[in-house]
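Q: What does the assembly look like in three dimensions?
Context provided by user:
Components: two
Sequences:
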Amino acid sequence: MDNASKDSLNCSPTSAELHIPFPSADLATVAYNSLRVDKEPKRSTTTKVLSLEANILKVSFTSGDTRQLRTAVNSFLDLLILVSKAIDEFAPLDFKI
Amino acid sequence: MVVSIGFEGSANKLGIGIVRDGIVLANPRRTFITPPGEGFKPVDTANHHQLNIVLLLKEALDEAKIDPHEIDVVCYTKGPGLGSPLVSVAVFARTVSQLWGKPIIGVNHCIGHIEMARLITGAQNPIVLYVSGGNTQIIAYSQKRYRIFGETVDIAVGNCLDRFARLLKLSNHPSPGHNIEQLAKNGKIYVPLPYVVKGMDMSFSGVLTYIEDFATTLQEYTVEDLCFSLQETVFAMLVETTERAMAHCGAQEVLICGGVGCNIRLQEMMAEMCKERGAKVFATDERFCIDNGAMIAHAGAEMFNVGVLTSWEDTFCTQRYRTDEVEVKWRNDV
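A: Here is the predicted structure of the complete assembly.
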């Protein structure tokens, strides 16, 4: 048996789905717009798709590599946290798009 | 009267600048400094920017005494640079652009350097030597483009200096290049090093490999001698290629910009060559040589004033972004 080629984490595409609620649909839209522009890095097998449902930002990730999936999800969450800090500090009161 | 805000984070410097009609109202900056012997990695740099950007924005707004509603345009560095740091800053810029209801403009980092240096020094139509840790280009403006006359065929001159400093385990505070410059002042012996100029282009990876051998054995030379010799060699290469460009264009002005442009020895050597030709050298101080937000704000304002905006889908970042890809619509000279 060829141990070097075994990797039980990579039999089939892995996926993850995140649902992030915001205080309002307008703020969820801000996050959606900020985060949907950048594509995943070229060498990554992970793709992500963002969508909006009222005040909930939905992200679904698909990857051929579980470790890459972890990186993609972590990077995304770091940026999401950054967006939320910007909203907390700089959104005008009763913000509307 | 246009008030623009610029966000810069393509390398290890995070800068936010606010500019009103060519006057810099605020330009605070934070630098991610790694321990001696270490360079800065993209993920760590991105983390640094994410951790500091909110406070830095508050600082900029306070210093400028500007309220967000007074801002006309939000500008950010589209590229070139490191991927995750660029994206971190772009995501933040997209967010405040929406929260404040302001248009957004993606700015080319190199053009930011050039336009800021032109503004500060008043140079009219110089040959531009743009030298930093990430870029080494010789640029001349012609018919709405900053044309790249010559450039490095491998690594940037600043990258060569930084990696040599890493090998010597010099402090990275305030920057590795600054510390090489200080040591070089006490160099006594000139060590002949490979000198590689190919027409209008230059190569630095060869001289780096060669001097790396010295660093590990040091032989009979001191660290000061090596720093001195490296500077003299690579700077002479820059001066030669700049002079060639000046001869081609009949230019009487040289403008040095980018982080390596802070180096006084480089400015001296360039001035000597210019004096022989009856030409003038222009350079800025470290507020504007080193990556900063105001240069992005100013270049962005120039674009905004001629109606250039960036569509939302185009607010992505790109690690490779050639200086001549941008149409310089705001200049009317030939």
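Follow-up: Chain A is about 35% helix and 25% strand.
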